[in-house]
């Protein structure tokens, strides 16, 4: 195993897109930022120099961080921010996972432009559970604002309203030729391919607030992994992914003409509909040695095509007994039922104003700001968070009922910083249930520090008698982010084998500052090798 070292110089940069100049925060002067390539078993060391004007942290999305919770990165959860002009070195070992993950800023909305791919290949002497592809290409789908994203978020928080929609989606940082000026500004992503060869596309949804459909005209895709967990090969002509998720697909370029578009547009499941960016990004696949001609455009699903999204999400299965496969733990120590949705918050400093809010089990999560939760855990500091996150919502009701009058006590939430305490190595099963106040939506829930098995998912209210009969214990997909169906539920299970404090949250960035989050506090194990070591000496101070 090797030590792989990188330096991230994070600073502001002026770029030109959509006919205008925009100042963004970027890593090493590029958008997306650098691709990190490691092998399973390697140690990754990244020196982050914050030369931007903003507080910064970097999160390694989907990395287990076994006994290295200090390197996880969510601001005020595992660390205080790296202040402008300061630096911090993230150091961690990558074990037990292979495939495509990514890294992104985990403070305010900075991840809109501070992100990149993190690719984990099998260690030497090991191979993929599929034929070796001719080439591997990261495809990062992003979201672009003609504005400073930190300002966009702050403006929304100030007014208590939803933030401005994005102005474009992007493929590897480029919006593509359906947007103004992209032609002249070289803002269409182009991939040259060799006819007859099979490529591995590592698709990452790095958009802030939207799930995306992705298609390549006239080409099938074979899904072989999601969220850096191998899947049973699944052939499809459309991929769906929620912010945070990754999808690895094999594509054989065997079509007759010279060029085809790849394209992505949002899957927006909200009801009643709220405004969102309903534009399409596209890039060009050019067969080498063919004369260029007008590329063929794929027929994309409608933005609200829930049946297509659900078919993709629910048909995936894990590659049981493949490399890095973890069997489903069969005995559950802790059952949780967690409702998720939007609410209102009364603004105490601004009487009369009602702010947008979001919650899990009616608790609206607020980050601390004087110390990180992980330091509070390690050094036994009280007053930063409490461990009384409820196992179920305060009242049971019809979660699909859109009426605010169903139980007025649930319409308003309080801010709190609560975690669920878990015994080391205990198995947790969570039913995530979307609620319908202020609209039903598909929430992509990301659990830091763990992969979980997705036992089942469906629409409507979870049925505790009949739905468990559908659980897949044999080959469920393993993920780090589950897009819980719109107006529906999903059941996940994981083993709490990693001590520390782990945030669990909706990966739509609009919902995170509103409070659609909670934490898990996993106790130390019985031995030194199952105990969280002390923080690195350069961990930023608050
Ligand atoms: Cu990809 Cu908490 O984040």
TrEMBL record:
Q: Major location, coarse class?
A: secreted
Q: Give residue ranges for domain Plastocyanin-like.
A: 11-124, 136-289, 389-524
According to the UniProt entry, what is the EC number of this protein? 1.10.3.2
Note on cofactor: Binds 4 Cu cations per monomer.
Q: Where in the cell is it found?
A: Secreted, Extracellular space, Apoplast
User: Which enzyme class, named as a word?
Assistant: oxidoreductase
Cofactors: Cu cation
What keywords does the record list, in alphabetical order? Answer: Apoplast, Copper, Glycoprotein, Lignin degradation, Metal-binding, Oxidoreductase, Repeat, Secreted, Signal
Q: Which reaction does it catalyse?
A: 4 hydroquinone + O2 = 4 benzosemiquinone + 2 H2O
The UniProt function text for this chain reads: Lignin degradation and detoxification of lignin-derived products.
Say which family it is in. Belongs to the multicopper oxidase family.
Q: What is this protein called?
A: Laccase
Q: Which organism is it from?
A: Ziziphus jujuba
- Source taxonomy: Eukaryota, Viridiplantae, Streptophyta, Embryophyta, Tracheophyta
> Coding gene?
LOC107430698
């Amino acid at each position: 195993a090797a030590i792989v070292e990188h330096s991230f110089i994070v600073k502001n940069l002026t770029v030109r897109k959509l006919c205008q100049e925009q100042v963004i925060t970027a890593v090493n002067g590029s958008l997306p930022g650098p691709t990190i390539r490691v092998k399973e078993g390697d140690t990754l060391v990244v020196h982050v120099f914050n030369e931007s004007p903003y507080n910064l942290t970097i999160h390694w999305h989907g990395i287990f961080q076994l006994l290295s919770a200090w390197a996880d990165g969510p601001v005020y959860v595992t660390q205080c921010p790296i202040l402008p002009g300061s630096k911090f070195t993230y150091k961690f070992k990558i074990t037990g996972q292979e495939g495509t993950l990514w890294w992104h800023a985990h403070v305010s909305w900075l991840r809109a432009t501070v992100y990149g791919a993190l690719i984990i290949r099998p260690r030497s002497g090991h191979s993929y559970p599929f034929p070796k592809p001719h080439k591997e290409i990261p495809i990062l789908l992003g979201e672009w604002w003609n504005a400073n994203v930190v300002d966009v978020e702050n403006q929304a928080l100030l007014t208590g309203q939803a933030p401005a929609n994005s102005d474009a989606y992007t493929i590897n940082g480029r919006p593509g030729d359906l947007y103004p000026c992209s032609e002249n500004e070289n803002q269409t992503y182009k991939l040259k391919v060799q006819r007859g060869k099979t490529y591995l596309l590592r698709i990452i949804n790095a958009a802030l607030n939207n799930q995306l459909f992705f298609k390549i005209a006239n080409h099938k895709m074979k899904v072989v992994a999601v969220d850096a967990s191998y899947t049973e090969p699944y052939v499809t002509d459309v991929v769906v992914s929620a912010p945070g998720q990754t999808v690895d697909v094999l594509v054989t370029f065997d079509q007759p003409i010279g060029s085809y578009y790849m394209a992505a547009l949002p899957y927006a499941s909200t009801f009643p509909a709220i405004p969102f960016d309903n534009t399409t990004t596209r890039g060009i696949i050019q067969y080498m040695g063919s004369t260029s001609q007008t590329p063929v455009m794929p027929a994309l699903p409608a933005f609200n095509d829930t049946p297509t999204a659900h078919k993709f999400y629910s048909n995936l299965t894990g590659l049981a007994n493949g490399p890095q496969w973890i069997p489903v733990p069969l005995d559950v120590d802790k059952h949780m039922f967690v409702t998720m949705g939007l609410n209102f918050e009364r603004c105490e400093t601004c009487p009369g104003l009602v702010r947008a809010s979001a919650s899990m089990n009616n608790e609206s999560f607020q980050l601390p700001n004087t110390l990180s939760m992980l330091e509070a855990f390690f050094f036994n500091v009280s007053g930063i968070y409490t461990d009384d996150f409820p196992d179920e919502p305060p009242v049971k009701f019809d979660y699909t009922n859109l009426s605010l009058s169903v139980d007025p006590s649930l319409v308003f939430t309080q801010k709190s910083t609560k975690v669920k305490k878990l015994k080391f190595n205990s198995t947790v099963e969570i039913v995530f249930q979307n609620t319908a106040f202020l609209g039903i939506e598909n929430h992509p829930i990301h659990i830091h520090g763990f992969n979980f098995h997705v036992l089942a998912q469906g629409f409507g209210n979870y049925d505790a008698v009949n739905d468990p009969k559908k659980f897949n214990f044999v080959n469920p997909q393993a993920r780090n982010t589950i897009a819980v169906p719109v107006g529906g539920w999903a059941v996940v299970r994981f083993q709490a084998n990693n001590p520390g404090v782990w945030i669990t949250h909706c990966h739509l960035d609009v919902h995170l500052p509103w409070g659609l989050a909670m934490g898990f506090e996993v106790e130390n194990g019985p031995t030194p090798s199952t105990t969280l070591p002390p923080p690195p000496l350069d961990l930023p101070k608050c």
